[in-house]
Amino acid sequence: MTTVHRSAPAPLALAGFFAAVAAVAVVGSLAATRSRDVYAALAQPPWAPPSWLFGPVWTVLYILIAVSGWLFWRAPGTRAGFAWYAAGLVLNAAWTPLFFAAGAYTLALAEIVLLDIVIAGTVAVFRRRSKTAAALQLPYLAWTLFATALNAAIIVLNP
Question: Rounded distance, CA 60 to CA 139, Å?
Fold first, then answer.
């Protein structure tokens, strides 16, 4: 494993993490232009949140995800954990187009299960170098596990 020598100033690096996470958010928002209508048209379980809640929740989660990555980057050690982090960002960006734009609910479910696994892996890898970075991933994991259950319920209720 190669030790990382950080050359970017911390504020610049933090901006880079926010930019990467913002790119994921933009992909999701472009694919979700009709998400409120699609979500409202689906039969949902009684515990499904209202559509207006997703924006504020994801705003907070994206901030936590960016700060988590930055804290892991700042911690001494290797780059090995960033593969998990990057995979999580890619999978996060893919779910919204699958679910809302393509209407591929079953494929979206398989994809979000993989995302759950990758986030859990990220937590495990981040914990070795920064307990705070790992802890900041936990709300993200909790929300995606909830979203996984919601995705599954929507499949069952919308045959």
Answer: 9
The residue with tokens 């979206």 is 108
Please give the model's pTM, rounded to 2 decimal places: 0.89
Nearest Cα residue to 82 out of 116, 121, 110, 115 = 121
| Spatial CA neighbour of 138 closest among 124, 153, 148 | 124
Q: Is residue 118 part of a domain?
A: yes
* pLDDT band per the 50, 70, 90 thresholds, residue 138: very high
- Asked, for residue 3, whether it belongs to a domain, the answer is no
Q: How confident is the model at residue 58 (pLDDT cuts 50, 70, 90)?
A: very high
Q: Is the residue at 5 inside a domain? A: no
Q: How many CB atoms lie within 10 A of CB 117?
A: 14
Structural domains in the chain (count): 1
